[in-house]
User: Which sequence fits this backbone?
């Protein structure tokens, strides 16, 4: 703020936070903090960073701005994905005083990009590969990837039990924690589960509750239960007629899987 007579323009953002991978509405307040009227006011916004760009009109004009008067300028700013932290937007400001003298200056507007972490399931692997009703201590390996725009901290995971289908093999086998997960990084989490003896064969989605950074959401873990094999003896033959005390009698069985 200048103590000399004449106009003096001050620029400040009314909303400093931007979100990555989106077009943000940014409002900048232009205020005449000087002692005289500013005439032919023009403000042009630009950026020198590739990850930040002004969408649509970037130049704004106003005939005059009286001392103490403010003018809100609204512009659209796009931020590239995977960007976070402090960024700068530049404003070229031009105006005249009542005597016709011209003024111009470049003002840097400090902004911050705040994204959110988001976990997604990349792959699911079971051991044994074919799970049937009654299986115990099944290893359910879930590979999670941070597909968001910010690092994830203190991620708490809980594989919810499904009555009549699956339950944890022991207390705590359904829970896991990830202290830190950067953007784009995968992590391997393994749960131990028991499959209910009465579970029906088919495809299911097991709920995986995720909590981190003040966020709570549920992912669906694909899970398939196969039908148990059921065998039936369809033919039985002996090399000779068996009798009490007979030795070396060969028995041939023909077995058929009658399950679906």
Assistant:
């Amino acid at each position: 703020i200048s103590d000399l007579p004449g106009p003096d323009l001050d620029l400040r953002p009314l909303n400093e936070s931007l979100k990555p991978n989106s077009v943000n509405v940014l409002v900048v307040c232009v205020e005449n903090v000087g002692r005289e009227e500013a005439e032919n006011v023009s403000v042009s916004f630009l950026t020198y960073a590739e990850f930040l760009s002004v969408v649509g009109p970037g130049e704004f004009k106003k005939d005059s701005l009286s001392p103490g008067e403010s003018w809100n300028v609204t512009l659209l700013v796009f931020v590239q994905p995977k960007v976070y932290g402090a960024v700068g937007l530049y404003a070229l400001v031009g105006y005249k005083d009542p005597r016709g003298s011209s003024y111009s200056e470049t003002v840097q507007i400090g902004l911050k990009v705040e994204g959110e972490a988001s976990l997604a399931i990349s792959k699911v692997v079971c051991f044994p590969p074919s799970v049937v009703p009654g299986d115990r201590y099944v290893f359910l390996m879930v590979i999670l990837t941070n597909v968001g725009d910010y690092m994830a901290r203190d991620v708490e995971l809980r594989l919810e039990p499904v009555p009549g289908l699956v339950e944890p093999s022991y207390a705590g086998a359904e829970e896991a924690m990830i202290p830190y997960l950067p953007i784009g990084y995968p992590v391997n989490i393994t749960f131990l589960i028991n499959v209910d003896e009465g579970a029906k064969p088919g495809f299911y989605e097991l709920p995986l509750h995720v909590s981190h950074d003040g966020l709570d959401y549920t992912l669906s873990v694909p899970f398939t239960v196969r039908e148990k094999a059921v065998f039936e003896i369809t033919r039985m033959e002996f090399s000779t007629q068996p009798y009490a005390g007979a030795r070396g009698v060969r028995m041939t069985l023909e077995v058929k899987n009658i399950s679906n």
